[in-house]
Fold:
Amino acid sequence: MERAYYVTTPIYYISGEPHVGHAYTTIVADVLARTARTFRPTFFLTGTDEHGQKVANAAAAAGKTPQQWCDELVPRWKALFAEYEIEYDDFIRTTEARHVEKVQRVFELLREHGDVYLGKYEGWYCVDDETFWLESKLVDGRCPTCGREVQWISEDDWFFRLSAYRDRLLAHFERHPHWVRPRSVYNEMMSILVEGLDDLSISRTNLEWGIPIAGGGVIYVWLDALLNYITAIGWSEDEARFHALWPAQTQLVGKEIARFHTLIWPAILWALGEAAPELVFAHGWITVDGQKMSKSLGNAVDPFALARRFGPGSMRYFLLREAPFGGDFSYSEEKIAQRHNSELANDLGNLLQRTLSMLQRYRDGMVPSTPASSEFAERFAPLPGKVRAQIFELRFREALESVWELVTALNRAVDERKPWVLHKEGRAGELDATLYDLCEGLRWLAVLLHPVMPERMSEMWRQLGSPGSLHEDWTLALVWGKLAPKTRTSPGAPLFPKIELEAQP
Ligand code: ME8
Structure:
């Protein structure tokens, strides 16, 4: 089987309703997957992390069994992804039999190979992060990741010999300096490694909501959760399929869970005789007033309301365009509205509308014949390759800036060539050439921006009357002059109607 582009998101705790942060990572994965699908086999996995104390507590507080609670909430998460035009290939739930059975098999294998041993865990536990913490790692007696209170745990647990993998991890980090990005996270993980790794408790004795271990207790939720990336794709079941996908090319996570994905995850994979993923990218946080947006901090924003207000396309565009991917960035409705109005409504939406109305007025709505030459053909020939490379380097903001060079050039062509003057002066050849360039440029934009704003770009494609598919390989689709003369356009409603923000009180 041909090796596929395999991209994953974290699987989300369904301890409540999703927020914009959860949509964010999944949108990024969707943009990668949609771009990859145009030229190679692709697999995009997301899902929900349903076991553990955090979910059990949330269910208990709602007076439901954990299973009932999860079954009721999963449709909300699927609805969120549908709302944001996310096209995953699989959605894994950790309560599904296909996952549970394989996690139990992993545990047995680790036990057989001597990678686990029975010991006593005495220390602290952060329920919100589902993390064990030694006293020495706490900050002012609180969880060093999220700052919340921790609880004391004393129980007999199974331990994974993580410390035995430290040297291999160090060698891996040194040999593959780009396997963890951005650099700041790589450096942070390196310094943890240099300090040393403790063995990891991988079971919970005093908890019922989890995958049972023969002989008692349940599997620690993080071991259970990390394994989703391989249980979903046929590990130990369908070797051909598994090896066509694994190791994953891109695993996207938020920076607060980089440690699990770059120190613990490779060690578990190696213990199973599998390879580490090629890239773990640990991105920054969407912040509100300088703090991470999170449900438990009470500053989470309802992603459904935002999609209704600004449109899913504009939200996707904003999230990718606002900041260099990797860093934190602050969220505000003013910023979303501002980008929507100036970049999408003015630069792009107006360009389409003006072009189609001039075409209607001067050429009966039909694309003129292909000009003998175009200043754009040579200038923008390298653009698709550049944008694609930037997307796979996960430099989304730069990719959108590159696309905007074409948007700007087309707007400038309207201002400089003044089609209405060409029409008035009867310069038909020049008018044809200008209108053709504008339509062809817009067709390119629909293709290039389709992974970012799938529905809006399909609508733009429809208005342009383009036959063919938006899913074609860019190297075939984006040849300047491919737009067929006499294509009949069908102008429609504005793509990005302006949004008025109410005046602040
Ligand atoms: O950690 N900004 O699940 P989780 C950006 N179940 N991204 C954010 C964000 C924010 N403010 N808030 C959340 C878990 N995210 C585990 C993962 S994986 C084997 C198990 C995104 O529900 C970001 O991707 O807490 C973050 O890592 C993830 O949601 C955490 O989701």
